[in-house]
Amino acid sequence: MILQHHDSESEIRSDGTSVVCPSSPIIGSPLWPQSFGRTMDIYSRSKSQRSEIDSGLDGISNAFEPTSSPTAARNDSNGIREPLLKKSESYQSENKYGVQSTEEAIHLSCYSGNFRPRNEQGSSFFQSLFNGMNVLAGVGILSTPYAAAKGGWLSLVLLLAFALICCYTAILLRRCLDSDPYIHSYPDVGEASFGKWGRWIISIMLYLELYAVAIEFLILEGDNLAHLFPSAGISFGRIILRPNEIFIIMSAVCMLPTVWLRELSVLSYISATGVVASFLIVLTVGWIGILDGVGFHNQGSLLHLDGLPVAVGLYSFCYCGHAVFPSIYGSMRNRAQFSHVLVLCFTLCTFMYGGIAVMGYSMFGDELQSQITLNLPQEVPASHFAIWVTLVNPFAKYAITLTPVAVALEEFLSHSMADSTKDIRFWGTILRTLLVISTVIVALSVPFFGLLMAFIGSFLSATVSIILPCLCYLKIFHQRLSFPEVSVVGALLCLGFIVGIGGSYFSVKAIIDNLGSTGAGLFPGYY
């Protein structure tokens, strides 16, 4: 029973009949980006499947190191495409599960991922759970109370809805990873689904999301430090720098050396405390409400229709971890537990997001600012503790967030530099410095933490976490799906487009309105 891979996407049995296997043909030469899987592995803090293939790499210091991709791995030295399932792999499926037919073997292989070698040195269930929560429980926790204030109490239903939807699409993404033994990252899924354009589009969206989150870190630092030191303004003749602008620039200067680093293992462990920091912020807000006299006396409003689109974007931002999930999945010792890890991650993070949203809205009502730390009374010591906990983590996460973008751009450096480590490091350092400067310019131009987060959530997070997983899943498995499943995935796809288009429009409109009314930004006179 030998299976051969054909361009018609079918598998030929020994009796001459065909069985469709959900794998799209991938053609061409190795495509940009080749560094995505390696740079995402740092979030899993373990040897993933991608890391094993890329053994021998020293951190992520060389963007030109050859890496495994669906395109490269599927072609041998003679340019002949390998079978999707080798003979030995198909027998392993039968022996492990005791199935008798080729159809069952293909189905189990495609959906269970049993053709992937077991990662004995990988992450345990609880390590993977911690890594997943560290990805999801980020700066979004500061703005869920603001989202509740913008949308009203009923908008919290959307928080739960996005948790369910994004958890389901993460499971769809895992099935796409299992559809082919050479798929290890999100861009690989795009390439398997839609060829080179699928890989490029998904990669660009993922890098834009990371770039935008790095900008949010700078705005967060500037706002919270300005809250602690409100009289830190500086003027140079006719140029006046507000406190938040000064601290944005100062934070970027302090973070710049970490972006130059080529080995980020130390920073990865520091940033792994992000879930602890988020938990401490929730506890501190509860402490201030219960023990420091603020109380939970604001009734709030049931629904704000005018603020609902912004709330949708903020809630969507909270669950934008799909870029890292393939790395966490690949790093697991027992990948069959990944779905359980996802469900528990989303459940725990939703309790954290919902808890701080309810407490914050009950404490401050419609007066909530974009970050709840800005509403905490300054005379209370616990408020200072919450702010400093908020400030510390982005210093590690900024470099880890921006480095994948930098390494991907370094791939465009002239390949004549590929043999010169000194040239690569020099021009790479210049590129990374310019990248940091660009984030500072954007942060100073659009210094609205909540509204920018709403735009990221509506345009980028909804695309990466809802639209693209659904599109790829339908493309890869379209010949095996039942009508009800196609209907469900299609409905989620439509919902993703509605959130993406509607939320992006209203968040951009709100940003433009605020630029004109507040005079914020680098060019306040031109809005």
List the main descriptive attributes of the protein structure presented here.
527 residues, mainly alpha, Amino acid/polyamine transporter I, two-stranded antiparallel sheet, two-stranded antiparallel ribbon, 19 helices, 63% helix, disordered N terminus
Report what the structure shows:
- The radius of gyration is 24 Å and the shape is globular.
- 63% of the residues lie in helices and 2% in strands.
- The relative contact order is 0.16.
- It has one domain: Amino acid/polyamine transporter I.
- With 527 residues, it is mainly alpha-helical.
- Helix 9 packs across helix 17, helix 10 packs across helix 16 and helix 10 packs antiparallel against helix 17.
- The protein starts with 9 loop residues before the first strand and ends in a 9-residue tail after the last helix.
- Strands 1-2 form a two-stranded antiparallel ribbon. The protein has a two-stranded antiparallel ribbon with strand order 3-4.
- The N terminus is likely disordered.
- One of its GO terms (molecular function) is amino acid transmembrane transporter activity.
- Keywords: Amino-acid transport, Membrane, Transmembrane, Transmembrane helix, Transport.
- It is found in: Membrane.
- Belongs to the amino acid/polyamine transporter 2 family. Amino acid/auxin permease (AAAP) (TC 2.A.18.5) subfamily.
- InterPro entries: AA_transpt_TM.
Offer a quick outline of the entry.
This is Amino acid transporter transmembrane domain-containing protein. With about 525 residues, this protein is mostly helical.
